[in-house]
Design goal:
30% helix; alpha+beta; 3-stranded mixed beta sheet; elongated
Length: 71
């Protein structure tokens, strides 16, 4: 399962808190990719992609092996 999110980040802290609260509800192995845009200190527009692999202890061994070996 792959979830893609694209946010215009106004408050990265609130986005990360939301993301972490969602992970508490998931007991499967998942790939997350975040694409976010922001403005740097010098005023330039920047964009970054954050790729996260979630493999909780409660997931099946086979699922953990598959999700960690692929990207």
């Amino acid at each position: 399962v792959v979830y893609d999110f694209h946010y215009q980040v106004s408050c990265l802290k609130s986005l990360l808190l939301f993301f972490c609260s969602c992970l508490c509800l998931v007991d499967k192995c998942i790939h997350f990719s975040f694409s976010f845009s922001f403005q740097s200190e010098d005023g330039g527009d920047r964009s970054k992609i954050l790729f996260i692999v979630w493999a909780p202890d409660s997931a099946k061994i086979k699922d953990k092996m598959l999700v960690t070996s692929s990207k």
